[in-house]
Design goal:
Structural class: alpha/beta
Helix content: 25-40%
Low-confidence stretches: none
Shape: globular
Mean pLDDT: 95
CATH class: Alpha Beta
Bound molecules: 6-O-phosphono-beta-D-tagatofuranose
Strand content: 15-25%
Number of helices: 10
Strand order of the largest sheet: 5-4-1-8-9-10
CATH superfamily: Ribokinase
CATH architecture: 3-Layer(aba) Sandwich
Order of helices and strands: EEEHEHEEEHEHEHEHHEEEHHHE
C-alpha cells in the first residue's frame, strides 16, 4: 500500500461565489467542507483509483473530529494520532476567475505527539511500497521533521516522496528523497532560478533523486540523472486547481510503486492532474477525462538519452 503522512491536516472549506471582492462584504451561497491537507488528498485520489492506501495524520479537537468523520464517510483508510491542539481549517474561495487560498498555520504539535506519529509510520513501513510526506509542518514541528521521515523510509528500503516547500524542502533534500514535487513557485523559491529545467537540475544537485515539478497549465517537468521530460495537458482545461498537485503525487507514488519508466509517470501524472482540475473538490478527479487525457498525453524528452 501507499502510506501518506499529512503533518498538518485541515478541514478544507470551499466558498463558491461569482466574483470575490477584497475589502468588501462577500455573500457566499455555496459552502462545502471536507477532510484535507496534501497527503489526505493524495490518499483520496489513490482510494478513488482503487489503489491500497493509508493516510496517517495528527488530529485534535472538534475540527479534528469533523476531519475524521469525513474520512470515514468517504471510506478513505486512515490512522489518526491524537493531539491536544485543534486541527486547522483552510478556506478556498473559488470565483469565476481564480481560487484564493487562506491556510491557517495549524495547531501547536508537541514533541511527544510528533514522536507518536513517527513511531506509527515506522510500524507501517514494512507494509508500505511507497511513503508520501506531503504538506506544511504545523507549529512546534521542526523543519527537519520531514527529512526525519525520509530517513525512516530509506532505512527500510521504501521509496519516499517529499512534497514540501521552504526550509522543510531544503532540509529534506539533504537526506536524498526518492522524489520531490515542487510547484513552479516553490521550485523558483528553493533555487532562485526561474527556468524550471535549470531549477530542477539544481534540486538534483542539492540531493533529490528525482524532481517532478508541477507547472500548472504548462504541465509537468521531470528531471532525474537519466534525463529530463516534459508532458503537457490538453488545452482549455479550466476549473479548480486546488489539489491538482496532490493528483500528481498520487500518480507519482503509483508509478514508483510499479517501477514505471519516467516518461510514463510524467504522462500519467499530467493526465490525472488535468482531470483533477475538472473536479470541483481537491482529492477528486473526472474519471472519463482522466482516461481520455491518459490516452492522448505523451512525455517529450528534453535531453538526449
Ligand atoms: O499544508 P499546506 O501547504 O498548508 O496545504 C494544505 C492545503 O493544500 C491542499 O491540499 C491543496 O493542495 C488543500 O487541501 C489544503 O488543505
Amino acid at each position: 500500500m501507499i502510506v501518506t503522512v499529512t503533518p498538518n491536516p485541515a478541514l478544507d472549506v470551499t466558498y463558491r461565489l461569482p466574483a470575490l471582492r477584497p475589502h468588501a462584504a462577500n455573500r457566499v451561497a455555496h459552502v462545502a467542507a471536507q477532510a484535507g491537507g496534501k497527503g489526505v488528498n493524495v490518499s483520496r485520489v489513490l482510494h478513488a483509483l482503487g489503489r491500497p492506501t493509508l493516510a496517517v495524520l495528527p488530529l485534535g479537537g472538534e475540527t479534528g473530529r469533523a476531519v475524521r468523520r469525513d474520512l470515514e464517510e468517504a471510506g478513505v483508510p486512515h490512522e489518526a494520532v491524537s493531539i491536544e491542539g485543534e486541527t486547522r481549517r483552510t478556506v478556498a474561495v473559488v470565483d469565476d476567475v481564480d481560487t484564493t487560498m487562506l491556510n491557517e498555520a495549524g495547531p501547536h504539535v508537541e514533541e511527544q505527539e510528533w514522536a507518536a506519529l513517527r513511531a506509527r509510520v515506522l510500524q507501517l513501513l514494512p507494509a508500505a511500497r511507497v511513503l508520501v510526506v506531503s504538506g506544511s509542518l504545523p507549529p512546534g514541528v521542526p523543519a527537519q521533521a520531514g527529512a526525519g521521515l525520509v530517513e525512516l523510509a530509506h532505512a527500510r528500503g521504501v521509496p519516499v516522496i517529499l512534497d514540501a516547500d521552504g526550509p522543510a524542502l531544503v532540509a529534506g533534500l539533504a537526506v536524498r528523497p526518492t522524489a520531490v514535487k515542487p510547484n513552479a513557485a516553490e521550485l523558483a523559491a528553493a533555487t532562485g532560478i526561474d527556468d524550471p529545467a535549470a531549477a530542477a537540475a539544481a534540486l538534483l544537485e542539492a540531493g533529490a533523486q528525482a524532481v517532478v515539478a508541477s507547472l500548472g497549465p504548462d504541465g509537468l517537468l521531470v528531471r532525474t540523472p537519466e534525463g529530463c521530460w516534459r508532458a503537457r495537458p490538453p488545452g482549455g482545461v479550466a476549473g479548480n486547481p486546488t489539489g491538482a498537485g496532490d493528483a500528481v503525487v498520487a500518480a507519482l507514488a503509483t508509478g514508483l510503486a510499479e517501477r514505471a519508466p519516467w516518461p510514463l509517470i510524467a504522462a500519467d501524472a499530467t493526465a490525472l492532474s488535468a482531470a483533477a482540475v475538472l473536479a470541483p473538490r481537491a482529492g477528486a478527479f473526472d474519471a472519463d477525462a482522466y482516461r481520455r487525457f491518459a490516452a492522448a498525453i505523451r512525455a517529450e524528452r528534453l535531453t538526449p538519452a
